[in-house]
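A favour, since you know our structure tokens better than I do. It will help me judge whether the discrete encoding reads sensibly. The space below this message is yours for that.
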Amino acid sequence: MRRREFISLLGSAAAAWPIAAEAQQDRVRRIGVLMSLAEDDRQGQRYVAAFLHGLQDLGWKDGYNLRIDIRWGAADPDRIRGHASELVDLKPNVILAQSALALTPIERLTTIPIVFVQVVDPVGSGFVASLGRPRGNTTGFADAEFSMSGKMLEVLKEIAPRVMRVAVFYNPVQAPQIAMWHAIEAVAPSLGVQVVPASPRDAAEIARTVEVLFAYEPASGVIVLPNPITNLHRELIIALMARNRLPAIYAYPYLVSEGGLISYGTDPAGQFRQAAGYVVRILTGAKPEDLPVQQPTKFQLAINVKTAKTLGLEIPPTLLARADEVIE
């Protein structure tokens, strides 16, 4: 090859390098993840791992064709708002938001496509126009339906038939939590149970609530509705239930694995795996408004036999037979 031809070829190649580099960069997509849980939360890490595995199963991997930025809110609204702003400034292609606490500030800040998980009543909360046609830039996976809350009281009464008074730990700031409370309240008379609302905002108030409501009240029980506050302080709640010998029912099976008595609800890790599919569809051209909001199709019943024995409860064989998970 002549020197002039070589120099010409080299110049053409050099001119193409930035184009090739730019093309490579264009193939890398960016995902923002806003978690309302704390970074050291075992279940939060489990959820993120489920999401990453779901992405990888579909051919998308962080550091290869994806860049994933994760922020942890630790159930602190101010911190979550700050992280929401940070993620929006990064201009990701899509954002995954865990819970209404994380979704609310994200949705107010951007038109970037959003996929949510663990949100109760996304229509009533104003996040989407309808389940079938969400409209706007938001879609995702609803966490529960209100009737499930009434079923939680039924299950608690079944495993602890002597319970006559039940406190419901809920967050009155969130409209869906109020609706869940009303569903429990509606079922209570038919079960001969008095229900009492309790809305502790931190660890100290949780401990004080248990002390005031139950220290001298026989035949009491607890329903722990899922929200960032009860999730953040779940170890304390489970410990207080054991110390005061109070039967309690939770929404997530992992709480039973951690020592809780019984749960009836969905497995959030499954939603995170499903969310990966929606995120990939958006990355490859789909619009959130064309992806219907998915509702849970299965509610799991989990029972901790050891905790039941500690509380002096005998599990009815019919309830044990229905359980999806039994922890010995």
Q: What stands out?
A: Confidence is low (pLDDT under 50) at residues 1-25. Residues 116 and 297 are 17 Å apart (CA to CA). The first helix runs from residue 3 to 27. The chain has two domains: 7-143+268-290, 146-265+299-327.
